[in-house]
Amino acid sequence: MIFEFDPERRGSTDRDRRRHTSRSVQRLFGAVGLAFAIAGCGSDAPAASVQGPTTPPIATAAPSTEPEPVPLTEPTTVEPEPADTMSETTLAAPSEAPARPCRRLTDFDDGQGWVIVNDGVMGGRSNGAVEFADSAMQFTGDVVTAGGGFTSVRLPLAGDELTDSESLVLRVRADERTYGLTLADSAQAGRRAISHGAGLTTDGPTDADGWQTAELSYAELQPSVFGQPLDAPPFEPNLAIEIGIIISDGIDGPFALEVDWIDACRGQ
After folding, report:
1. How far apart are CA 65 and CA 82, in angstroms?
2. How confident is the model at residue 79 (pLDDT cuts 50, 70, 90)?
3. What is the Cα–Cα distance from 84 to 22, expressed in whole angstroms?
4. Confidence (pLDDT) at 100
5. What phi, psi does 231 have (nearest 5°)?
6. Among 21, 158, 202, 249, which is 20 to 30 Å from 40 by CA?
7. Number of other residues whose CB lies within 10 A of the CB of residue 209
8. Cut 0.85: pTM above it
9. How far is CA 222 from CA 9, 126, 184, 212, in A?
10. What is the DSSP string of 155-192?
11. What average pLDDT does range 106-111 have in this prediction?
12. d(CA 38, CA 45)
């Protein structure tokens, strides 16, 4: 078989081959470009280029502290309590008053210092005696009115036992006789000591054993010298030098007085 060469057909074939190659190259570069485009979309890009429009933050209101509105209702009228119910209210009891300031002068544990002074200094015949038992002083004896008519028991003081006090309080157990207290300070009339005295009331209520409390205010004291009243300044407790118990009730006969303790007190 004889093949004839046709130059025009060969040229047409070359042109067709070049067009085919050109389209293949274009498709190749298109595919590569698409691959780069896809890779670009998946790479790390600035947030501004990939994010959508920014939504402004929504402000959250703090919870309200105001009370919830109360539904309107009919006004309530508070009725006062009846007068008779107020008496049923129990009030707190007031606190107890502070203890009265007192100083214990003696409770006769030893009885030292007490001495008997009879009316013999005035020519009398009365006599007294003192004993101490069960932490109490027992003052006993006989009164003879002819002559002096008294007997007493006395205790010298150091000088400050009655300082700032206003009265004497005694716990006593007595018969039906009348007794008195005598007090002396540094005041004198001439060369004689002034005695300040007053009656001691012993007719108050007693306990089951017959003891009672008796009190004497210094304001009741009257000055005298050997039983004779005189005009003198009031008793000065800060200068006290002696305390005594005396019986001079104008009655002849025996007597008996027991004293458990003596206190010097301030206030009433």
Report:
1. 40
2. low
3. 121
4. 77
5. -85, 115
6. 21
7. 7
8. no
9. 175, 23, 11, 24
10. EE--S-TTTT--EEEEEEEE-SS-EEEEEEEEEEETTE
11. 89
12. 13
